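Q: Please design a sequence for this.
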């Protein structure tokens, strides 16, 4: 699995990390313990599915948390951070860059067209492309900047009225169109399962998304770079890994409870 803590690195010292991040040492120690537990759990889920843990990218979802927590997590060896809001991601990115910390940044929340211009050149991966119009806006602005932006197509596999994303049939019908866009590179799919009482109830949703992914990979979108399946969060990442997830988005299990949002 990616994101192994760099035990030989001098930053892997809770006191030094606490000083850099501006956090109590005990809070850093608790974060380190949660992060290690998640790493072990992700590796165990991969092995149980007959997969190599190195195939799984662990994204720490730092949304709504102070930059100090993101700083500490990166110092502990977490290489990928996920954010829901554009402004929050950019502010944390600048804060960590000032500390010479450069994780890969993932935008995982809903993206509005009027915010696209701020993201060009600032993300490793955008997980939440949920309409053809949004994809075209991003492609246009990326092309004008002479860049190629990596994206995932968000699919609403469970057909939830409260969730964003393409209908699976819409993706299949428009694969040619999406594959031909300049300025963007479609790397795969992202989905969110409904919040069920029992995590195993998510398996049909993840399994259907895996089948859709395979169908698209066999068509116009298929390439060596169409290889990312982003699904699974704190409550259901083991089930997602069993169904082929390559990227899991873990927030609470790593960072603990989030502050309430007004």
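A: Design:
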């Amino acid at each position: 699995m990616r994101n192994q803590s760099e035990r030989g690195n001098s930053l892997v010292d809770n006191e030094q990390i606490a000083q850099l991040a501006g956090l109590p040492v005990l809070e850093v120690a608790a974060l380190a313990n949660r992060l290690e537990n998640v790493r072990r759990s992700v590796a165990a889920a991969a092995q149980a599915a007959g997969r190599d843990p190195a195939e799984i990218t662990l994204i720490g979802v730092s949304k709504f948390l102070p930059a100090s927590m993101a700083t500490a997590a990166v110092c502990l060896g977490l290489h990928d951070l996920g954010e829901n809001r554009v402004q929050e991601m950019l502010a944390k990115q600048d804060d960590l860059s000032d500390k010479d910390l450069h994780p890969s940044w993932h935008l995982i929340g809903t993206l509005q067209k009027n915010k696209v211009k701020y993201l060009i050149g600032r993300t490793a991966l955008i997980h939440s492309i949920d309409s053809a119009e949004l994809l075209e806006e991003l492609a246009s602005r990326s092309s004008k900047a002479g860049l190629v932006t990596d994206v995932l197509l968000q699919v609403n596999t469970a057909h939830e009225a409260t969730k964003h994303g393409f209908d699976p049939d819409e993706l299949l019908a428009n694969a040619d169109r999406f594959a031909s866009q300049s300025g963007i590179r479609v790397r795969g799919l992202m989905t969110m399962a409904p919040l069920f009482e029992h995590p195993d109830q998510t398996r049909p949703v993840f399994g259907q998304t895996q089948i859709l992914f395979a169908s698209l990979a066999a068509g116009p979108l298929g390439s060596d770079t169409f290889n990312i399946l982003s699904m699974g969060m704190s409550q259901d990442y083991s089930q997602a890994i069993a169904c082929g997830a390559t990227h899991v988005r873990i927030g609470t299990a790593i960072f603990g409870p989030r502050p309430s949002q007004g």
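Q: Thanks. Anything notable?
A: Strands lie at 57-61, 80-83, 104-107, 125-129, 149-154, 184-190, 228-230, 247-250. Residues 25-48 form the longest helix (24 residues).
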